[in-house]
Fold this sequence. Notes:
- This protein is mainly alpha-helical.
- It has helices at 6-13, 53-78, 85-112, 117-124; strands spanning 26-28, 34-36.
- It has 3 domains: 6-36, no CATH class; 45-82; 85-128.
- The protein is 54% helix and 5% strand.
- Strands 1-2 form a two-stranded antiparallel ribbon.
- β1 (26-28) and β2 (34-36) form a beta hairpin.
- α3 packs antiparallel against α4.
- The model is unreliable at 12-29 (pLDDT under 50).
- The chain crosses the membrane at residues 57-75, 87-106.
- Keywords: Membrane, Mitochondrion, Transmembrane, Transmembrane helix.
Amino acid sequence: MLLLTNHIFNLYTKKPLRRSNTKNSKLYFSSDYTIYFLTKEVFYTKLKYSRVPQFDTSAGAAASFLSGLFGFMVCERFGFELLDSGDFLFAVSYLIAIIFLISLLVEIANAYNNWGSDLINFLNSFRYF
Length: 129
């Protein structure tokens, strides 16, 4: 993890950058920049029971699974059906069929009179894919 020095950090935030003990992990290459390698942050968060990022990740995953289960139970209880990929497959297949039928109807209408040639060319371009 690479971070800029307090000089650059203070330039934009006007706050000091709080660091842990990094005596042996600094590499100075100019007077303005410092690169910190593998530094350990003392304060990860201000939450009471949060000590490591893994705890927050597992707690967030458990909360998302429980909320999904609760939402599924509520939807099933009151008769709402959840969307899945099959619903979108039906929508796309109906859309393709409607575009094909509209292009045929416009082509039939064009056989009797010469209107909408730009629309016909646009709709017929879908038939060749």
